[in-house]
Design brief:
This protein is of the alpha/beta class. The chain is built from 19 helices and ten strands.
């Protein structure tokens, strides 16, 4: 557009911004080149802390590419991951701020990989990450001047979540009260200073601000007048790939997906001892970070009533293919939508459940406890150098 502006006489010269507006109208306006951002990691048991890091990374550019390490690489550098690589790739791809996933990205971030994806810079949390031999994973990108730091989310880490889970035993899942007193072995492994107390005393004290909820909601859209509004509810504890599959299927059944998240008391009544592992606020942020969820009902009623259906404009209620616990009055919590003919079961198809993840951790409890102890020592050592 420069040529035309310079040829115009001084009498009809306009400011560049006006010219810019005119060019948009004429369809000539070229958007500045897209800023491409890279983030990478294990994203094991992907949680809202990871999601928040990715949200911040995305906010520094236009297009976010996320490298996810392979199982073999993680095993070599850090110990066995809880979730396998396919599960981890799926979890990262479902995060609403991620535009592209690069599977099996190298554990130490390589400049040629960034070049291959036309990356402007790499972003990571403000903690030091090292390979098995102690090399800084971001040494190369730092030297190249392509590294930016975002603050870590306080109050959550995979290490912390594993610690919360190690306060449980497998027997808790059959709710055998006899065994609760016999879980000294697990308590000893849990690294918790408060192993004898109720796990609720160790339940995260994380409480988000409205600002955090707004950041995670993003540019929330309202359903259109003709949109088919689908509703699904649940606990969504340790938000994982099984939840992602079911939300993806639920969303595909309509145009707008509302997710009801039950409060901690409801979750505890249904799931029993030591549940939920994540409190309501943490579970809400987890669901909000998923690209299939359009809206979240915080502390949704366990029994779906007419008022909820009317207020939210729900056209279809769906439930994953798990057993349904009765409501407190003994009735079917889906009785009303079923009577209205607006209920449907969906099969999540992934087979991953919160119980399964907890059991994977129990089976590896000793290895994980060792890994956590090492990681805590490393974090303490690194923070004292900082």
């Amino acid at each position: 557009g420069k040529r035309r502006m310079s040829s115009s006489s001084s009498s009809n010269k306009r400011s560049a911004s006006e010219a810019g507006i005119e060019q948009v109208e004429q369809g000539e306006f070229k958007k500045p080149r897209q800023v491409r951002v890279w983030a990478d990691g294990c994203f094991d048991m992907m949680h809202y802390g990871h999601a928040n890091a990715l949200r911040q990374a995305k906010s520094l550019g236009d297009y976010l590419v996320v490298g996810v390490h392979s199982d073999a690489d993680i095993l070599k550098n850090k110990g066995p991951p809880v979730m396998n690589e396919q599960e981890r790739y799926k979890a990262v791809a479902a995060c609403k701020w991620v535009d592209e996933v690069v599977p099996a990205a190298p554990y130490q971030t390589q400049l040629d990989v960034l070049e291959e994806h036309n990356i402007d810079f790499c972003v990571h949390g403000d903690d030091l990450v090292t390979t098995a031999d102690g090399t800084d994973c971001y040494e190369l990108v730092k030297k190249a001047g392509k590294f930016k730091v975002v603050p870590r989310t306080k109050g959550v880490s995979t290490t912390d979540l594993v610690g919360r889970m190690l306060l449980m035993t497998k027997q808790h899942h059959v709710q055998d009260p006899e065994d609760v007193s016999q879980n000294k072995e697990v308590n000893r492994l849990s690294l918790s200073t408060d192993a004898k107390g109720s796990p609720y005393t160790r339940l995260s004290k994380f409480v988000p601000t409205t600002n955090q909820i707004m950041q995670f909601s993003g540019s929330a859209k309202c359903p259109g007048p003709n949109d088919k509004v689908v509703y699904i509810d649940g606990t969504f504890d340790l938000f994982h790939v099984g939840h992602i599959y079911v939300l993806e299927k639920a969303k595909a059944m309509g145009d707008y997906l509302i997710v009801g998240v039950h409060d901690d008391n409801t979750a505890n009544r249904i799931k029993g001892a030591n549940h939920p592992i994540m409190n309501l606020h943490e579970r809400v942020l987890s669901v909000l970070s998923c690209k299939y969820a359009d809206e979240v009902v915080i502390g949704a009623p366990y029994k779906i009533d007419q008022q909820l259906i009317t207020n939210q404009g729900i056209t279809l209620v769906v439930h994953g293919s798990g057993p349904v616990d009765p409501a407190e009055d003994g009735s079917d919590p889906y009785e009303i939508p079923k009577n209205l003919g607006i209920y449907s079961d969906i099969d999540s198809g992934s087979g991953v459940t919160t119980t399964m993840i907890i059991e994977r951790i129990m089976d590896n409890a000793k290895a994980f406890a060792l890994r956590n102890a090492k990681k805590e020592q490393k974090e303490v050592a690194e923070s004292s150098h900082a």
